[in-house]
Specification:
Shape: elongated
Number of domains: 1
Strand content: under 5%
Order of helices and strands: HH
Helix content: 55-70%
Number of strands: 0
Largest sheet: none
Number of helices: 2
Length: 66
């Protein structure tokens, strides 16, 4: 004879496992310290500044005007 399964318990166990997997993913994605977030923001700012520093200014000749 087959084993009797309580569907309510099985559904709750499945939902708990799904919630735990989502929580683990969120810890990886959002679980950074304030110092780590500030460091990342500073690195992005530095990269943007360096990129802007290498940008060439458009002149009239480049735009096709005489």
């Amino acid at each position: 004879m087959a084993e009797i399964i309580n569907l309510r318990r099985a559904r709750k166990a499945r939902d708990r496992a799904t919630a735990e997997a989502q929580a683990a993913q969120n810890r990886i994605e959002f679980g950074r310290t304030k110092a780590e977030r500030k460091l990342t923001a500073a690195e992005k700012t530095l990269q943007a500044t360096r990129l802007d520093g290498h940008r060439l200014d458009a002149t009239k000749d480049d735009k096709g005007e005489a």
